[in-house]
Design goal:
The strands form three sheets. The protein has a six-stranded antiparallel barrel with strand order 1-2-11-10-7-12. It is mostly beta strands. A hairpin with a 5-residue loop joins strand 1 and strand 2. It has three helices and twelve strands, in the order E-E-E-H-E-H-E-E-E-E-H-E-E-E-E.
């Protein structure tokens, strides 16, 4: 039995030359090693799953230290992941990037870069107002946000200026270009959300 996802750290983007000499834009992710810290069973919890830990630390709060004691180490990040059918999984089991293979499709979930308070042009790609005919302060304005006396209010969810980024984002169906268990390295074709050294979860698709 193996888990369907692992935790990792985004390193950055680079290019990879395949067998045909074609340059491919890839994102390097340091995946694992992750340690199983808790096992969910149908008999006790009503479903199967596993909690994994990533990035060892020296100290955590006393409740977490007690929770993580069976696994033999303390971790900065804990996440619950799905478990594939067949076999057994145990607390303390070490999981590495070897569960992913080249050519496989995966989903990458991370926290996007925070952009602070942004206007409509940057946040939603608005076109802006007229640039001529005496329009001196409408270049990046959103324009009308309502429809008059009916309904007499601003519709919920309307695209406007506001906080941009720093949100959970999933990039789907990224192709694994290379899996290197020796260096805990995974090369994914395309972009992975998040800043350098940010936490990323890599999950098998399907």
């Amino acid at each position: 039995m193996s888990v369907r996802a692992l935790l990792g750290k985004k390193i950055g983007t680079t290019q990879y030359f395949d067998e045909d000499g074609r340059a491919v834009c890839v994102t390097a992710v340091e995946v694992g090693p992750c340690i199983v810290t808790q096992v969910k069973t149908v008999e006790r919890d009503g479903y199967t799953g596993a909690q994994i830990g990533f990035e060892e630390v020296r100290r955590r709060s006393k409740p977490l230290m007690g929770h993580l004691q069976p696994s033999g180490a303390l971790f900065r990040h804990l996440r619950e992941v799905e478990v594939e059918d067949g076999g057994e999984i145990e607390i303390g089991q070490r999981l590495d990037v070897g569960i992913f293979e080249a050519g496989q499709k995966v989903d990458a979930t991370g926290t996007s870069k925070g952009r602070g308070f942004a206007g409509g042009v940057k946040r939603h790609h608005f076109r802006g107002g007229p640039k001529t005919h005496g329009q001196s302060d409408r270049h990046r304005a959103p324009g009308s946000i309502g429809a008059g006396s009916t309904p007499g209010r601003v519709i919920k969810g309307l695209k406007m200026a506001g906080h941009m980024g720093n949100a959970r984002v999933t990039a789907r169906n990224l192709r694994v270009v290379q899996s290197d268990p020796g260096r805990n390295l995974l090369l994914l074709e395309g972009a992975v959300p998040g800043a350098h050294n940010s936490l990323v979860m890599i999950r098998k698709t399907g």
